Amino acid sequence: MPGLLANLSQWAHASDAELEALVEQADFGDFVASRDLPPLRERLLRLEREQGITEVHRRVSEKVLAAGARLVETPRYTGMQRCFALSPDGRHLAIASNRLGKSPGGDVCIWELATGRVVDAVGFEQTLVGSTGAPSCLQWSPSGEWLGVILNQVVIGVLRAFAGTLPSFTADVTRRWGSPPGWAVIHPKTVKNTGHLPAWCWSPDETHLFISTPGPDGALGCIVPFREGARVNEDSEGIRWCPARLDGQPSKSQPHTWVRWSPDGTRIHGYCKHEFVNEPNANPEHEQAHSSASVIDVRSGDLQYRFDELKLPAAFSPDGARLAYGEDPPRLANGLTAKTVANLSKYVDVRVYAVVEEYVWSRDGRRLAVLIRGYESFQVLIFEAGKLLCQMDLKRRSFGMASSSGDLGRWAWSPDGSMGACLLREAGSAEQWKREGGTVELWKVGPSPRMLRRLEGTSGIDGLAWGADDTLVGTGPHDIAFWDVNTAAPRFRASLELEPGRVPPPSDWNPWPDDVARFIPTEHGWDFMRAQPDGTVECPPGSRAQLEPRLMFSVEGRHAWPWRWALGTRHARWEDGVSLPAAPREEAPFEERRVTVPEGETLEARDARHGTWGFLKQYQAPTRPLDHYRAEPVFTHGPAICRANLTPYLGQCVLLRQTREGTWYALGALLEVSDEGLLLYPRAPIGSYRERLLSFRDILWIGPAVPLEPREG
Predict the structure, then answer these.
(1) What is the pLDDT of residues 345-389, one digit of tens each?
(2) Where is 288: in which H helix or E strand?
(3) CA angle 94, 486, 403 (to 5 degrees)
(4) Which residue of 270, 344, 434, 555 pairs with 256 in a disulfide if CB–CB is 3.0 to 4.6 A?
């Protein structure tokens, strides 16, 4: 009897009855997950849509999971997603994120594009992972076997991808010479040996890393040998510092803020956003900060050139042979010499003025997309071999908001460079775009470009990546979406933020204090759950339907297999979980307080009292910590947060979240509402103390506070 691998197409086209027979007859002894699992999964998904979960799902799960697989939960909530990296084969996306709220630590998760689910996750309990505002803090090795990430803004840690383990290599080399100079700060001792956030890259053979950081005698980075299990610092053997001499003299350059190693291994190219002479005697009036590009010769460690006329944005081609740069005018230079090859502005046909917002090279470096913002219109110009190939007019729509990480842009090339995806928004304010989102357009690129289809559901998305398996990924600080580019159908879409009106639950409500809390909101509180690697899932029955779609076995660490298909086998089972006994609440959730009005109060004193307390004579005060409440109803950022909606809650306790960077909540009495803002007691944690009212613009959501109760055991 032929084995499973004889004819996979037979499985795809088999009827349901034939499928059951194939399962009985198939030999899974030669099962290869990378080859066999995706078509099997696709066929069983179709069967589930038609008949629900059947005995066939359970039988196949027994065979697929026989060799073992870890259970991984795709998170419902995470902190801010900070860094993004598409794997070399385009099948996985790595994301580094904070923990939710103000919890320390972070996570690196690897998402499978074909399913839109997490297949590997590594948690860092006390370590900050990645960074915002600096690209390439998270990088795959060329083979896809390793994943490097910035830790605590200083150290580079390398972990084995798909293994679920912490970094087995670290490089901490930015402290001795790379810490901020004492003369540049008010308190020099506070910056001693603190190090800095370094740009870095892999060598093409994965034997070394280049780390861009100041070194001894004016060095401009170091080449560090990569060995699994090593912990490298400035005193380690094998480190080679790059002296970065220019024409035989010390260059006094600043470290690169973005670097890559050329595929042939001979050069390291990159750019610096803020080039200046970093010396105590430098005159800032004569030495203005500027951008620069340069190339380091790997053998000598010296600069082949430094190009001080660089204007951002800038993008080296994948092989480093060409450099596109400049906002106005856009130019194309030889990446090996910085000599101008072409002035691209002669191809720009936009009235009044036009500036470049982004350069994006195709994966093979053959084509260059130039995103141009004009006075009245936005365009995408496509160049091939330095010449204009085509031009796409976006019809008075603008590009979506730019990503803060810089890892993913608003244009993404298909793997073969024949198509592109562009993130757009209709004319309107940035706040409106954040609420409503925009669209993604897929374009066929060529001498006669044409728009193929539109993808909806882009709220919160600010970066795109086009991977393998006909999948486009959209990411943002708190959102992620996966689309099938052939049908425009969404594969998975999620906001990873807490729902409006919710704050993270109290840590002492977590029944497993030694584990990271996973939770689902309920009407009166939270349900906690825990997924064990062996397939056991502890979760109260009322929340299982919400959790189940996010549970996947990770086969060989790379391929998602639905946990629900294995229920009823030895590989998967539900348990009700553990609940803490509910402590009796002796105090009410709120107490009434009165505003003291002194006898014989003067007009001046009355005005001062009104300025502090508004015109109320009594108000409601919370008796419990902030995380023991939720807001209901909830008014979200925009027109809904207004005087008319909030006035009915004067004197009541309200819960709100502020819009400022980071996560800031406030719980207090609503004392006054005007057309511009509100008076809260106590004051919100973020805001100017010169302003009496908290502006509506600074509120992400708000609502009257409702007490929560821990789940009774």
Answers:
(1) 877 665 446 789 999 999 999 999 999 988 778 899 999 988 999
(2) none
(3) 40
(4) 270
Four-point Cα dihedral 666, 667, 670, 672, nearest 10? -20
547 in Cβ contact with 557 (< 8 Å): no
DSSP 488-545: --EEEEEE-SPPTT--PPPGGG-S-TTS--EEEE-SSSEEEEEE-TTSEEE--GGGHH
CA angle (526, 528, 533) in 5-degree steps: 160
100 confidence band (pLDDT: 50, 70, 90): confident
Write the secondary structure of 385-411 as one string of H (helix), E (strand) and C (coil): CCEEEEEEECCCCEECCCCCCCCCECE
Please report, as a single letter, which amino acid is at residue 8.
L
Q: What distance in Å separates the CA atoms of residue 631 and residue 323, rounded to the nearest whole number?
A: 52
The pLDDT score that the predictor gives to residue 3 is 47
- Quickly count: other Cβ atoms within 10 Å of residue 353's Cβ: 10
Between CA 565 and CA 48 the distance in angstroms is: 9
Please state the separation of Cα 229 from the chain's center in Å. 28
Cis ω on the peptide bond leading into residue 682 (within 30° of 0)? yes
Which DSSP letter does residue 570 get? T
CB 203 within 8 A of CB 148: no
Nearest to 490 by CA among 449, 542, 538, 437: 437
pLDDT tens by residue, 620-657:
999 999 999 999 999 999 999 999 999 999 999 999 99
Contacts of 221 (CB under 8 A, 6+ apart): 210, 211, 212, 213, 215, 241, 242, 244, 255, 256, 259, 268, 296
For residue 371, give the H/E element and its range: strand 367-374
- Whats the size of the chain, residue-wise? 713
Tracing tokens 């004197």 back to the chain, one arrives at 651
The neighbour count for residue 7, using CB atoms within 10 Å, is 12
Burial of 396 (0-12, 13-18, 19+ CB in 10 A): exposed
pLDDT category at 128 given cuts 50, 70, 90 is: very high
Task: Give the pLDDT band of residue 503 (cuts 50, 70, 90).
Answer: very high
146-151 and 551-555 beta bridge pairing: unpaired
What dihedral angle (degrees, nearest 10) is formed by the CA atoms of 566, 467, 482, 455?
Answer: -150
CB distance 10 to 23 below 8 Å: no
Q: State the first-to-last Cα distance of the chain, in angstroms, to the nearest integer.
A: 54
8 Å CB contact between 335 and 346: no
CA pseudo-torsion sign 198, 143, 320, 267: positive
User: Which residues of 87-134 form beta strands (DSSP E)?
Assistant: 92-98, 106-112, 117-124
Beta bridge partners of 70: 554
Strand-strand pairing, 479-484 and 490-495 = antiparallel
> From CA 253, how far away is CA 294, in angstroms rounded?
10
Return d(Cα 173, Cα 150) in angstroms, integer: 12
Give yes or no for residue 51 having a pLDDT over 50.
Answer: yes
% residues pLDDT > 70 (the chain): 92
Per-residue model confidence as pLDDT tens digits over 14-36: 888 888 888 888 888 888 999 99
In 3D space, the residue among 464, 509, 502 whose CA is nearest the CA of residue 485 turns out to be 464
Phi and psi, residue 40, nearest 5°: -60, -45
The domain limits of the chain are 4-64, 590-707
